[in-house]
Structure formats: structure tokens, C-alpha cells
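From the thread on structure requests for the teaching lab: each student submitted one protein with a one-line request. Submission from student K.M.:

"Model 3-oxoacyl-ACP reductase FabG from Streptomyces nigra, C-alpha cells only."
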Amino acid sequence: MNRLEGNVALVTGGSRGIGAAVALRLAEEGADVVLTYESDAGAAARVVQRIEAAGRRALAVRADSARPEALTAAVDEAVARFGRLDVLVNNAGVFLVGPLDALGADDVERTLAVNVRAPFVASRAAVRHMGTGGRVISIGSNVAERAVFPGLALYAMSKTALVGMTKGLARELGPRGITVNLVVPGPTDTDSNPAGGPDAEVIAGFTAVGRYAEPAEIAATVAHLAGPEAAYITGATVPVDGGFTV
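Reply posted by the TA:
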């Protein structure tokens, strides 16, 4: 699979979970990959090693997505190292949940900074370097469409904002040949929401297929949207949720 041969991709929050799966899949498709991470340098290094073992170039950049200047610097470093940028995957996010009275101003600020402002800032920085065929892909959440438990209002609000950003940027960047799309995972087996967790059976039961997704299943859809076959898909919200919202 070399659909992305010669392309360079940047994946925010690419050291674990869905982000790591996306970084590895894009490398399998032929892309060189830059990934950001916040604190776990070891996990980021392991993803880089796996990408390089697959024969692609890779770079891990430490960047707190809550800091706009750090994201912009990560984009600039990616271009400086590899000479171009073709694909941006806005994956980094925070999951702060709780009742209204328990969520303080710092929780709200952190959630909006990472889940809303960061994708906008990264997209703005990235598209400066993109030409025809550029791809901006963000990772949303199924709870923006169906919040099945109390305490999800802040997180759901932040992920809902990505729908508007995706549609607005798709309209703006379409004339430049750049597509913008949103992938919406359902319950996915990651460190933060393991398929063997205490509430996993109940959560899986909300899906039509009765199970969690593997991160690689989310990454497969991202890879399709990043490739040339998806040139006519833009402004779309693509659920990969096992029927969670049906």
C-alpha cells in the first residue's frame, strides 16, 4: 500500500491510542510521519521506531496542544525536517467529565483549549504549507451525537464544535484542492477507555455490533480520507462507531 508515497503527515497526540494507530497506518500507506506528544517521550519513541522499521521517516515533537505556539512550532518543525506537509490529523484531546458543579473554570479552559482551539490553530498553521491534495482530518467523538451518561456536557460540547469547523474550513479550502473531514469514533479500546474496563460491557451494549472498536479500525478510515480516492469527500462527518448513534 503506497497511496501516500511521497507525502508527509502530522498527527497530533500520536504517541498512543487512536493517534498511534493513525500514525502507523499512514506510514504503512507510504507517508513519512511527524507526531506530537505531551509528556510520554518513551511511548512516542516507540511509535517512531515502528514507523522507521516499516521503512518510513518519522519524527516525534513534544508539544502541549493547549499552547498555540507549541502547535505552530510543531508544524514548522515538520516542514523544516521533511520539506512539505500534506496531511494533518487533529487527534490530540482531553476527556474531562463530571457534573456541572464539579467542573471548574480550569477544566473548561483546558477542554476548550485542547479540543477546540488546538485543531483550529494546527489547521491554520498546516494549510499554509499545503497545496492541491492537502488533507485536514479531525477526530471527533460519538458523544457529541449521543451522550448516554450524565457528566458528558463539557466534552460533548467541545467535540461538537469540530463539526462546524470542518464544514467551514471545507468551504474555505475547497477551491485550493484541500479537503477537510471529521472522523467520529465510537467506543474504542484505548488506555483511557479499555474494552476490559468496569463499564465496558454497558458501553459496548449501546453499539449495534455489541463491541468496542480497535484503534486500527478508526485509522483505516482516516487513511482512506487521506488518500487520493477521497478527493471528492469534504465537509463530511464520518461515523466509525459500530452503530452507536443509530
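TA comment: The domain at 8-240 is CATH 3.40.50.720 (Rossmann fold). The mean pLDDT is 97.
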